[in-house]
Backbone:
């Protein structure tokens, strides 16, 4: 199959590029290794839309953070993605921290972050009464926010697909060759050619670069672990609470999520791609660090631990450039934090690089730039009754914790990028996101998936391929 442009990887960066490109008249293909979009770092991070005072002035990270941040309110409104502009505080816990706040304020002003100011300890505690009495002051960034990161990725990818992009899942690119048409990309799903290629392969983007003989950068994966606490703790803080950043990251934060939970993490530890295991030491560090800023967090309300892997590189900035050895092969690599925030702006940046590389871009006359999803629990009683009257499945509650109905799950199965796993359903409609974490609804979601996809339940994985839940049926104690 031939495309004008192929995007390798459909995390939030690949999805943002697809979204930006799908407004133009071109054949666009997306090759994703996993069986779903947003199944890499994009689903496991702090979900913060950063203000932009943290990256060094003059870097791509600084510029794209601030531009990306400004795009969120309108983008999320258009694509129906949960986003809340709640603001953030970086708290000072020592005299050295006081100096760091001043430096962050200076950087933030240079990066043109709007509304930044330093608060006294009293002002900070009047905004956030659960802050430690040790807090000496804070840097307030009113433009920071929280978002649902996997839904942002899904929404941009779905919009691209609705506008003609072709998404190939379970299609890892294993080899790249030069050919007359540009590049030939080999995958287990077949071969694809394209004039231009965007390398959005996250933690393994250096390996993808190596496939075209480009060894100009290396990714040094770095893991961050988290606690996700039940909604009972969801109002412990009203804003994102950071501590002062260190050389290895932005430090441990405490933040509400758009789903109403409390998120605490991450630490930072070198790792390898794909290592998302939690460790007792890592979690103990996260817990102790968070309590320095917000001492009253009740960790007995923890419902899930998880880890995400940063695509740290050997360059101190995002790598957004055409390969020096492979013309038309463009890297969007080393996209660590604030990559989620910057992603919408990175999509636009990719357009500019493609134009510079020679791609001619003509706008589509018709571009469908909107998306709506029914969230049953948010509807009025009248709206709920109307849906149930049309289809009784809207009244059958599958996930009791989050009040997700069978109607919502079936609707997700008919969206432009349908889920194929239990966690794929979780990411789309929230079934399994609640206190019991799918203990009750998981098997029922699996049954619905099997029924709607016409598959045997043993063929429905928990998440990516190979994460099987069932391996057969037992009858009278014997394996059938
Ligand atoms: C602990 C942590 C906390 C963070 N917190 C924040 C935050 O609060 N705010 C913020 O702005 N940013 C944050 N980030 C950064 C942000 O999450 C990332 O910058 C962003 O998710 C990167 O997206 P991506 O699309 O580049 O990578 P990914 O989401 O990893 O996507 C890459 C995709 O490429 C696919 N792929 C890989 N190799 C191939 C191949 N050969 N063929 C086909 N497909 C392939 C993968 O399967 C994957 O789906 C955080 C990151 C971490 C790890």
Residues:
């Amino acid at each position: 199959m031939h495309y004008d442009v192929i995007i390798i990887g459909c995390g939030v960066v690949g999805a943002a590029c697809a979204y930006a490109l799908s407004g133009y008249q071109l054949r666009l293909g997306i090759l994703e290794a996993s069986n779903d979009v947003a199944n890499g770092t994009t689903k496991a991070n702090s979900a913060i839309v950063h203000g932009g005072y943290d990256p060094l002035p003059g870097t791509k990270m600084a510029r794209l953070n601030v531009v990306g941040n400004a795009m969120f309110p309108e983008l999320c409104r258009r694509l129906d993605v949960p986003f809340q502009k709640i603001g953030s505080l970086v708290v000072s816990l020592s005299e050295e921290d006081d100096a760091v706040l001043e430096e962050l304020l200076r950087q933030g002003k240079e990066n043109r972050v709007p509304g930044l100011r330093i608060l006294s300890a009293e002002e900070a505690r009047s905004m956030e009464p659960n802050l430690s009495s040790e807090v000496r002051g804070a840097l307030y960034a009113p433009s920071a926010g929280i978002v649902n990161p996997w839904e942002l990725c899904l929404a941009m990818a779905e919009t691209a697909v609705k506008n003609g992009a072709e998404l190939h899942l379970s299609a890892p690119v294993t080899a790249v060759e030069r050919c007359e048409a540009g590049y030939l990309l080999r995958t287990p799903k077949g071969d694809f050619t394209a004039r231009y290629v965007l390398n959005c392969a996250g933690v393994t983007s250096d390996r993808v670069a190596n496939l075209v003989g480009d060894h100009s950068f290396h990714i040094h994966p770095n893991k961050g672990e988290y606690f996700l606490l039940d909604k009972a703790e969801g109002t412990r803080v009203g804003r994102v609470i950071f501590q002062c950043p260190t050389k290895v990251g932005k430090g441990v934060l405490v933040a509400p999520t758009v789903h109403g939970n409390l998120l605490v993490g991450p630490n930072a530890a070198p790792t390898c791609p794909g290592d998302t295991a939690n460790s007792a030491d890592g979690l103990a560090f996260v817990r102790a660090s968070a309590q320095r800023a917000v001492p009253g967090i009740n960790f007995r309300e923890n419902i899930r631990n998880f880890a995400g892997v940063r695509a740290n590189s050997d360059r101190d900035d995002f790598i957004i450039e055409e390969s020096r050895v492979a013309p038309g092969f463009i890297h969007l690599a080393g996209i660590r934090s604030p990559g989620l925030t910057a992603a919408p702006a990175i999509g636009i940046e990719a357009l500019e690089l493609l134009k510079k590389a020679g791609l001619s871009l003509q706008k589509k006359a018709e571009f469908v730039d909107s998306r709506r999803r029914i969230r049953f629990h948010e509807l009025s009683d009248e709206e709920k009754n109307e849906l149930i009257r049309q289809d009784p499945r809207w009244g059958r509650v599958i996930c009791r914790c989050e009040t997700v109905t069978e109607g919502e799950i079936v609707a997700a199965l008919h969206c432009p990028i349908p889920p194929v796993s239990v966690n794929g359903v979780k990411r789309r409609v929230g079934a399994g996101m609640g206190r019991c974490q799918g203990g009750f609804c998981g098997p029922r979601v699996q049954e619905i998936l099997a029924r709607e996809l016409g598959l045997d339940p043993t063929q429905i994985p928990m998440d990516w391929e190979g994460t099987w839940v069932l391996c057969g049926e037992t009858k009278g104690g014997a394996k059938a």
Q: What stands out?
A: The pocket of flavin-adenine dinucleotide is lined by residues 8-14, 31-34, 39-42, 45-48, 50, 172-173, 200-204, 208, 224, 266, 308-310, 335-341 (CB under 6 Å). The chain has three domains: 1-82+145-218+311-372, 88-142+220-308, 382-479. The longest strand covers residues 190-199.
